[in-house]
Amino acid sequence: MANVSVYNMEGSEVGKLDLNDSVFAVDVNEHLMHMAVVLQLANKRQGTQKAKTRSEVRGGGRKPWRQKGTGHARQGSIRAPQWTGGGVVFAPTPRDYSFKMNKKEKAGAIKSALTSRVNEEKFVVLDSLKFDEIKTKAMVNVLNNVKAEKAIVVLKENDEKVVLSARNIADVQTSLVNTINVYDILKHNTLVMTKEAVQAIEEVYA
């Protein structure tokens, strides 16, 4: 069973935490993680790009000159792709880029991402994360104390003081157990989780 240190907000080690091997010590499946990242980025795409083909451009209904005898190359329309103002060859049209993964694939990708952070020793567990007021400096100090750079901070429940304290820090993101995703985990160097969040994730994915 994987075992990690638990730190307080001052950066001092206050205990150990046994991690569930079925969540934090699985075989890392890079293919599933890649699929999950591609899925998230594809689902973000609007897919509204559009250009007109030669059949959609206004004008060009008349043949510009007769077929033979002018010395010019033969032309059928001034809206053909080789003309200025003509249509676009294989023009992009609105489409839906999204696709789906099944539940087991999604869970496998999340567990692979979590395991990869544990294996790389970029996984930090805090016994608690509470602030008396919204203070960016307080969050900066906590992250510095646990040596977490470019971090994603995962909470069990939404805490407005923590979220707003972290919002103004470059390369730092907060997330909840039920909104965590592979793309965000891999995008950040360090995964910081509260002890409660770890237990909640184990309940969901174990």
Assembly type of the chains comes to single chain
Coarse shape: elongated
Mean of residue pLDDT values: 93
Specify the biggest β-sheet.
6 strands, mixed
Strand content: 5-15%
Residue ranges: pLDDT <50 for 5 or more in a row?
Answer: none
Helix/strand order, N-terminal first = EEHHHEHEHEHEH
Give a count of the beta strands, DSSP E runs of length 2 or more. Answer: 6
Classify the secondary structure makeup into a structural class: alpha/beta
Rg value? 27 Å
Count of DSSP H/I helices: 7
Strand order of the largest sheet: 2-1-3-6-4-5
What is the end-to-end distance?
Answer: 13 Å
* Helicity level: 25-40%
Kindly describe this structure.
This protein has 206 residues and is α/β, with parallel strands linked by helices. 34% of the residues lie in helices and 14% in strands. The chain has 7 helices and 6 strands. Strands 2-1-3-6-4-5 form a 6-stranded mixed sheet. Helix 4 packs across helix 5 (160-167). The longest helix is centred in the middle third of the chain and has 17 residues, at 103-119. The protein is elongated and about 95 Å long. 25% of the residues are buried. The mean pLDDT is 93.
Would you summarize the structure shown here?
With 206 residues, the chain is of the alpha/beta class.
Give the SSE map:
Layout: E1 3-7, E2 13-18, H1 21-24, H2 30-44, H3 103-119, E3 123-126, H4 136-145, E4 151-155, H5 160-167, E5 173-176, H6 182-187, E6 190-194, H7 195-205
Parallel strand pairs: 1-3, 3-6, 4-5, 4-6
Antiparallel strand pairs: 1-2
Helix pairs in contact: 2-3, 4-5
